[in-house]
User: What shape does this take?
Amino acid sequence: MNMTEPMFLALTALVDEPRHGYGIVQEVERLSGGRVQLKIGTLYGVLDRLAAEGLVELDREEVQQGRLRRYYQLTDQGAGALEEEAARLAANVRTATERLGARTGKAATA
Assistant: This one.
C-alpha cells in the first residue's frame, strides 16, 4: 500500500484512542503543527480506504445533538502498517541527513 501523509497522520491520530471524524481532523492538525488540515470529505475518503485495507475499523456510533458520530479505531494490522511506514520514513530521513552531512562536510545529526 502506498501510504499518503494524510493516511499516515490519520492512523497516528488513532493510536491512543478511537476518535470520530472531527476529532481525527483536529488531532491531525495538532500532530502536524497545523501544516495538514484535512477537509471532512477528504478525511472520509482516507478512512474508507484505510477501512478497506483493514487498517481501521468502526468502533461505535453515537448520536450527539441529533447527529450520528462514527468513531474509528486502529486495528492491529493498522498499527503494524503504521510502524512499518514510520520505520521507512525514519530510514529515508537518516539517508538524507547522512548525504547532506557528507555534502557539507559536517557530521550527520539524526
Observations:
- The CA atoms of residues 50 and 56 lie 6 Å apart.
- The mean pLDDT is 93.
- The beta strands are 19-20, 56-64, 67-74.
